[in-house]
User: Fold this.
Amino acid sequence: MTFTTKRAAVSGLALVGAAALLAGCAAAPEESTEGSGEVLDFLPCMVSDAGGFEDKSFNQLGFEGLQAAADELGVEYKAVESAAETDYASNLSSLVDQGCNTIVTVGFLLAPAALESALANPDIAYVSIDDTVDQDFDGTTDAENIEPIIFDTAQAAFLAGYLSAGVSQTGVVGTFGGMNIPTVSIFMDGFAQGVDFYNSENGTAVKVLGWDRAAGDGSFTGGFEANDGARQIAQGLIDQNVDVLLPVGGPIYQSAAAAITDSGREIALIGVDADVYVTDPSVGPLLLTSILKGIDVGVHEAIVEAGNGNFDPTPFVGTLENEGVGIAPFHDWEEKVPAELASKLDDLKAQIVSGDIEVESYLAQ
Assistant:
């Protein structure tokens, strides 16, 4: 599968952090919100995945990109939330009926509904976050009016895994996800690869619980809600002596944070998508780092391009090289991370970019 790195604006995860500063006060609209400035004849729209626009993570980053683009273009926008997979098709149909010119679908699970809508409405531009919309698996997007924006987060997760192994005192780290789909498991697998690499370099035997690379399976909640089920899975990992925990799936980190707090132990939490230290200060003291995806920057540029008549369906994949993915600062953990370990992460990033270290993923070229 061939992708390009055409979007220079994505090479700036510092922008992700800056946008996230507004996250605490960002409210999700049910219908439309008006931008400012000169109004174009252009209506950008968005459909969320489960979790909603206030998940302080994946959907929220997409929504912030929509807001920023609409403001820059001086147009209104429409955004609708999906509570379940059964909402996808009807939400898309509603936006088509309301005259949307560009529709962003936030999430891997929306791909089938996005494809059906795109094929039925070839004059509308679609932007698919986290899926190439290649339902026939021939290596190309299945509709000419869909632009995929995807992220090889295994590369950044590799760094987080190496870091976790380096700071672990118990020699046991853990991860769990919302659903076993590629955009979730890519974090977990990259994390495990980083731990394995640390072990091979340092002669250690740090264990990873919650993900089995050989089986391609692990611990999953079955959804993306911060509920008792997610908390029980986190507790089960904590009971096995983990002292670093990576929950992958939007709000489920909140359940992990609650379990960590109740344990009374020093257990580091790793966030995903956004810098969770910024988007959710309530869990800030627990966070070792976050594995970042430049969703907001990618959405912003795709909508601005479309609004200016320059929609480009060429797929984009975020990597460490173009800074579409990365890891957040250590924040409150800064003094607990040895300088030598922090410096090593910089070296590892350079080796991944150069190709000297190959991180396996379904998006690896």
The longest helix spans residues 182-202.
